[in-house]
Amino acid sequence: IAMYQAKKAGRNQCQFFSQGLQDALLLQTSMRQDLLKALDANQFRMYYQAQINAENSCLSGMEALLRWQHPTRGLLSPVSFLALAEETTLIIDIGSWVIREVCRQIHQWHQTGLLGSTPITIAINLSAMQVQQPELLAEIKNVLDEYNIPPASLELEITESALIDDVHSPASVLSELAECGIKLSLDDFGTGYSSMEHLKVFPITVLKIDRSFVSTIGEDAKGERLLIALINFAKSLGMKVVAEGVETNAQAIFCTAQGCDILQGYHYAKPIPAEQFEQLFLSRLMANS
Ligand code: C2E
Ligand code: MG
Ligand code: MG
Ligand code: MG
After folding, report:
1. Residue 162 gets which letter from DSSP?
2. How far apart are CA 24 and CA 72, in angstroms?
């Protein structure tokens, strides 16, 4: 339609259209070149977002979230570069860096006594391409071994799009990870394909209900009923239920009353760097233990 309208509007309009396209392509090309250098230039950072036990309001764990400290564009969320990272397969190396960096951080927190004696889980997001790598299992096992981290404290978050590629089925890698005691969680549940087959085939024990359902609380009765149904569905399968994107006290109360096990969202904390996470959550943990 844009092309048709541009043609109809004459030469200037057409140039205007192609200028916009050219800008987008240039941006992509420069981002791609920047991304190629980002690992070596040490520009990736890990941020940590608290996960709260709904029953006692204590810290139950954290989700590690990737950031790119771009030299000129500032701190970038993966939303702005994940597609490019997948397309260039850089996500494999970036993903490996994430796993190692998070485990190194956990090890350091254990060493300095900051994690106390309470078991804290740490969630890492995996991309579809990573779970298609047969090497992933050995890689994770080795890093856990090296940093002396119990497999049961690690949670790997995958989205359903990672499960539907039946050409390179991730079933065996995921099953073996689960057999090691690592927990698998299904991220953004309710927004993707949500095939019941996935829950049957894959050893998923944690369900993260997407924040689009949580945000309907107090706003939209049908959305609320869907949220309740999803929570009950997960619980009847014996899964741990995490509510994502909890932004208000009312949402926290609602999710707790409906049986969510874990709450995560800006109401408690935004994703923050490790040092800030220590100050806000871990030093208190040490004082209490
Ligand atoms: P996700 O795994 O579903 O992570 C939750 C996203 O929601 C995060 O965005 C988080 O900052 C944001 N969030 C948390 N609480 C709230 C809230 O109360 N309100 C709102 N509006 N947002 C909230 P972020 O950090 O930008 O990450 C976006 C996505 O990028 C993640 O979604 C995940 O799919 C992906 N991602 C993040 N880190 C990694 C990584 O290390 N590897 C891979 N492959 N993907 C990652
Ligand atoms: Mg996640
Ligand atoms: Mg999510
Ligand atoms: Mg997401």
Report:
1. G
2. 17
**In whole angstroms, what is the distance from residue 158 CA to residue 272 CA?**
21
CB of 153 closer than 8 Å to CB of 122: yes
Amino acid code (one letter) for 6: A
Ligand 1: which atom is nearest the Cα of residue 127? 44
Helix (H) or strand (E) holding 240: strand 240-243
Q: Indicate which ligand has the atom closest to the C-alpha of 127.
A: 1
> ipTM score here?
0.98
Q: What is the pLDDT of residues 223-279, one digit of tens each?
A: 999 999 999 999 999 999 999 999 999 999 999 999 999 999 999 999 999 999 999
Quote the pTM value.
Answer: 0.92
Nearest CA among 58, 37, 71, 30 for reference residue 119: 58
The residue type found at 133 is Q
Nearest to 180 by CA among 148, 144, 233: 144
**Which ligand gives the minimal distance to the CA of 78?**
1
Q: Which residue has its alpha carbon closest to ligand 1 atom 11?
A: 271
Nearest CA to ligand 1 atom 25: 65
Test site for ligand 1: of 48, 90, 125, 136, most ligand atoms within 8 A of the Cβ: 125
